[in-house]
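User: Fold this; tokens only.

Assistant: Input:
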Amino acid sequence: MAELLQQLVTRQAEWRPEAVALVMNGARINYAALEDASNRLARQLRAVAPRPDFDSNPTTLRLALSKALPSYMLPSRWMSFERLPQNGNGKIDRRALRERFQQI
């Protein structure tokens, strides 16, 4: 479902980037802005890696992400991994991640 939603946002951003995608607290967010924010979130999430000197509790992570993302894009649930699950091609196994998040 999440992948389908991502594909829809990407297609809409290509076809009609200025069309309103979301209205929140009176603000109108178009598809181009929504896609940009989701891409920034993806880059931030890939950049998060455990470091011994970094406090990776949810409060600290939320604060760090809030500098790059609007509040509605901040994750509401967090899960820590030693290593992200990978599929046979060495890519992040999104299905396995989704299943783990559904368990909490």
